[in-house]
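Key idea: predict the complex, not the pieces.
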Amino acid sequence: MIPAAFDYHAPSSLAEATALLARHGEDAKVLSGGQSLIPMMKLRLASPRHLVDINRIPGLAYIREADGSLRIGALAREADLEESDLVRTRYPILLDASRVIADPLVRNLATVCGNLAHGDPANDHPAAMLALGAELVATGPKGERRIAVGSFFTGPFATTLARDEILTEVRVPAPPPRSGGAYLKLERKVGDFATAAVAVQVTLGLGGECERVGIGLTNVGPTPIAARKAEAFLKGKRPDEAAVKQAAQLAAEEARPAADLRGPTEYKRDLVRVLTARALRKALERARGGR
Amino acid sequence: MRVGVTVNGEKREADVEPRLLLVHLLREVFRLTGTHIGCDTTHCGACTVLLEGRPVKSCTVFAVQADGKELMTVEGLEQDGKLHPLQEGFWQEHGLQCGYCTPGMLMTGYAFLRKHPKPTEDEIRWAISGNLCRCTGYVNIVKAVQYAAAKLSQGGA
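Result:
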């Protein structure tokens, strides 16, 4: 399959890239990993007249901790995340998520920022970032602005990014002591989008109560969903088995799945219940020092 | 646009449209037809080549993105008329039936063994999870990779 013709731009700085985006507006798309965009272009679901390839801009491929947060740059690949000792030891929820995105070959090119900026409710990082309470950094011609991940996704494939902005960094708050997270996904086969998936990140207080809880849901609504009722229910409570079950039920009620080839709505909603309970148990186990 | 790449150690150049996919540059412009086009939708991995040492699906990369970069295709495995231990493994362990997925399996396996010289079976299966074999010859493909790992650890090639 051959995509529609386009002009290719390979800027060597962010300033040059955002100027190109500003000039070409609706006709331009950013190319980072390209693992969602290029298939869409081949299927002619997207036909941008200008492609702004950011892969030749130096200094964007980092994963590091600074000033109390994990910083993931625009060109950090999923494979980089998987191979990062920092991520494995301190942010296991992100390792869980990256390992179930597409397949190992796709992950060699696919980027974390692209996974978010694409705005696909079926993508896996949005739910994980919602659970973690991440902050996104958008760079445009006038400079940087920060966006709370909770207000980033506005509809299917729609975000609050302006046409001339590039998602240049994700900032994940460094987990305090007694924190743990997990991402659980049911997929029909390797490489498929989630039938449903759930991200949970918890921090326990000294008395064992939930000090902070984040719960994100994948592919069960028009956008990635933060399960706020379930989060509020758990906050300040000791997460015993009854509380876990109740929170899972609330998360299932917050899901807004649509029936498709992956299953009917009732099935997907119940899957959210089961996965939320399991992800909560795993996150709690990790928060208490388990793997 | 002018694109210059190093393929299997050899410098090559071509004038291409930006929309030309890397797999088409390799097969149709450079006539390196060992790399196969399978699903053409980023699923099957038959078109896997190494881009700067990392296995990628060449149907999902534009040729212009590879400008100035190093590529390796299945044609680069054999050295001086001698099969690479991984190719030998596929032969010895009957790691192919129709052979359509084989170039992709070989390139994924090659990159994987460089990073994981002593892999477990689970690790091998994980590594090839983006390469589909519709003859369902996975058991023998895993054996072929194990054969190569053993041979390479004894200093073969």
